[in-house]
């Protein structure tokens, strides 16, 4: 046996890190962190908590350096990047939303899907009423009907 402590073992003296989803938008591809935050805050009755812009005279001036919003009990950070990246948003990572009614699920699916892409229309796929949609910014949303 080794006397070296297991770095994966819980340690009450070690602070617990906080994890927050961070969405990076590419204005060169028609994406906008500000527009996305406004859409999400409106659809989810959330709030844009803060927006810090890139300063005038710098690359990306006037776009979002970092923004934070709260939606559906989740804090999300967003940014516009002035660098053209070869990558883009991927449906392999999506935001899961538990909807409390069919009407809420339909409203969110329609609002998020405007100008976006439907991966799975709302239907019962054997695990309850469910829909998967990508919004016009490339972020994907899995909308499940809780308690259905």
UniProtKB/TrEMBL annotation:
SUPFAM superfamilies: Glyoxalase/Bleomycin resistance protein/Dihydroxybiphenyl dioxygenase. Residues 1-27 are annotated as: Disordered. GO terms for molecular function: methyltransferase activity. The keyword Signal does not apply. It comes from the Bacteria. Keywords: Methyltransferase, Transferase, Ubiquinone. One of its GO terms (biological process) is methylation. Residues 19-143 form the PhnB-like domain. It holds the Pfam family 3-dmu-9_3-mt. This is Glyoxalase superfamily enzyme, possibly 3-demethylubiquinone-9 3-methyltransferase. The lineage of its organism: Bacteria, Bacillati, Actinomycetota, Actinomycetes, Micrococcales.
């Amino acid at each position: 046996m080794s006397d070296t402590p297991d770095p994966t073992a819980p340690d009450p003296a070690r602070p617990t890190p906080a994890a927050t989803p961070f969405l990076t938008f590419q204005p060169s591809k028609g994406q906008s962190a500000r527009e996305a935050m406004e859409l999400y805050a409106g659809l989810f009755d959330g709030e844009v908590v803060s927006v810090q812009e890139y300063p005038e005279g710098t690359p990306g001036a006037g776009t979002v350096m970092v923004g934070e919003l709260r939606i559906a009990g989740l804090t999300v950070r967003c940014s516009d990047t002035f660098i053209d990246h070869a990558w883009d948003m991927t449906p392999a990572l999506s935001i899961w939303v538990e909807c409390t009614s069919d009407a809420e699920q339909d409203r969110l699916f329609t609002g998020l899907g405007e100008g976006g892409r439907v991966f799975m229309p709302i239907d019962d796929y054997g695990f309850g009423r469910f829909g998967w949609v990508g919004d016009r910014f490339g972020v994907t949303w899995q909308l499940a009907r809780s308690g259905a």
